Amino acid sequence: MKSIGVLMTCPMHKYLEQQLETHFNLFKLWHCNSSITEFLKTHQGNTIRAVVGDTNIGVDAELIASFPNLEIVASYSVGLDKIDLRKCEEKGIRVANTPDVLTDDVADLAIGLILGVLRRICASDVYVRIGKWKDADFGLATKFSGKSVGIVGLGRIGTAIAKRAEAFGCSISYFSRSQKPFANYKFYSNIIDLATSCQILIVACALTEETRHIIDREVIDALGPKGILINIGRGAHVDETELVSALLEGRLGGAGLDVYENEPEVPEELLGLGNVVLQPHVGSDTVETSDAMADLVISNLKAHFSNKPLLTPVI
Amino acid sequence: MADQEEEQDNTGDQNHKPQDLPQVLILKPPPVLSVIGEESFLSNKYQFLKAWESPLPLHQFLTAHAGSIQAILCSGASPVTDDLLQLLPSVRLVVTASAGTNHIDLEACHRRGISVTNAGNVFSDDGADAAVGLLIDVLRKITASDRYVRQGLWVSEGDYPLGSKFQLRGKRVGIVGLGGIGLEIAKRLEALGCNVLYTSRKKKTFLSYPFYSDVCQLAAHSDALIICCALTDQTRHMIDKDVFSALGKEGVIVNVGRGAIVDEKEMVRCLVHGEIAGAGLDVFENEPDVPKELFELDNVVLSPHRAVFTPESFMALCELVVGNLEAFFSNKPLLSPVMDV
């Protein structure tokens, strides 16, 4: 397999890079300014038989068209929004992702964000470090246990979040494309109703054309001044401009965000707020999970090139 | 006859003139009283005697009112010592607006036949939430990453460096003190996929978590320690050099108990030298002073003793304080006795 050309779209994880280099003939797109055009000036397009992409740089129609021998896309992510799935299907290109191995970490982060916002853990730390503990009263945080939690998208991650929130005595409800028969939680067929009914709204669904800006002004207003929004999905799930103005105007109580519409740019207005917690898209960035994701990418590639079934196929 | 008419002319409560109500001494207002407001604590069964409002020197004030003070409402900021009790021979009850009782001379209370009540379980959920929040934060570097974003480093430096954030699943978490708060912590940790271990004064036979009678042994088998026990003579500086050594370079500590349970100087030294991997701290030996060395560290999360400061907990605490006082003055059983004499 050492001769098989694999293109990595951007630096994701050193360990993954090393593994790809060991097993395949690895090409790094960022050595060509992350430009396909520039890559093709010095490399033959037909050498690439596999692409490893992630949430930053995925696999779009241009890339697919540039590599006529492309057989498989192995994404270092569970999210598929950066992959032109229709084109892949059309061309018979296999697609694999990294589900399950990152479910716990993302769910843990959602809980961590809720506690960070409601219990003001991050804001308190700032307060202590600048020596304000002696000076002024900081004000109360808000209890998490027992609050009502609404989950948008009850897939693997949504379910994992629900199980955790239950241990905190929370009531769980959800909005999904369809009701889940196995789920013992209250189902809302309308996201406004979900937002109205809960105090903590968590975005945990996939990004598709239907879910783009699913959290809009109406939903935010329904969540209200005592509500908080947690986004561990994709930045594009939320109308970011509306989110910012709602927070500034006090129409929304707070937010915990791991993703943004235009990463790594975070709206400047959020940087000064004490009722938000901001993470730089780290949902699955633990040592253990990053390695597990990398191993899964490698395993899928090896399986494909050995004519064995993919471990985690999407297409 | 004349006396009775005089009494009936009073516009106050027919049953108790204000001066007849038993007095509850408050030396300094507990945080819950200041935050919620005195109105929520009022009752027709007792009245507050607020020492801080008097111009008299304390000793004189106490001596003047000693005869009518039957109870004391206190918190960490206003300790109840044997000397204080000596001045107040009519006291039969001490109510503390806290879970901790380390600021009360329990032995003296027992000797004098004085009952003590505390915050019971009103803080258990919030205390557990804070402890778990700090643990997640330390392992996943949530506050440090938040700082990274706010300082503009995501844009200028790229992604937060991998390699210093760890999964919760499968971590062995040793709980020091499996009381009300400890049990709630355990429940939450289980949902996060952690393996719960504990040490306590006594093994809890109804639980299947592995028990260690020695805190060093617990630390040796744990990836993280959560301190949520009471501060007593036995637990003072219980988390010492040996425990940190047993916990090891990859271990983290969370403290929502009392600062003095930990040898703070030793802990700071271990953190600065990388002999333990991180800490989430809500309490310190000398609040509000926090060792300055900790401000330089990215693997430490600092909280200003707020683990249970939510409006919900405070309302519940208010009800419990009033409930205990009213029960006492109605000769009914105390709601949350620590020592019922």
From TrEMBL, chain A:
Its EC number is 1.1.1.79. GO terms for cellular component: cytosol. It holds the Pfam family 2-Hacid_dh_C. InterPro entries: D-isomer_2-hydroxyacid_DH (IPR050223), D-isomer_2_OHA_DH_cat_dom (IPR006139), D-isomer_DH_CS1 (IPR029752), D-isomer_DH_NAD-bd (IPR006140), NAD(P)-bd_dom_sf (IPR036291). One of its GO terms (biological process) is photorespiration. The keyword Magnesium does not apply. Residues 13-314 form the D-isomer specific 2-hydroxyacid dehydrogenase catalytic domain. Belongs to the D-isomer specific 2-hydroxyacid dehydrogenase family. This is glyoxylate reductase (NADP(+)). It comes from Salix brachista.
UniProtKB/TrEMBL annotation, chain B:
GO terms for biological process: photorespiration. Keywords: NAD, NADP, Oxidoreductase. It is an enzyme of class 1 (oxidoreductase). Residues 132-307 form the D-isomer specific 2-hydroxyacid dehydrogenase NAD-binding domain. The keyword Ligase does not apply. The keyword Mitochondrion does not apply. GO terms for cellular component: cytosol. Pfam families: 2-Hacid_dh, 2-Hacid_dh_C. GO terms for molecular function: glyoxylate reductase (NADPH) activity; hydroxypyruvate reductase [NAD(P)H] activity; NAD binding. Residues 64-338 form the D-isomer specific 2-hydroxyacid dehydrogenase catalytic domain. Residues 1-10 have a biased composition (Acidic residues). CDD domains: HPPR. Its EC number is 1.1.1.79. Residues 1-22 are annotated as: Disordered. Belongs to the D-isomer specific 2-hydroxyacid dehydrogenase family. This is glyoxylate reductase (NADP(+)). It comes from Salix brachista.
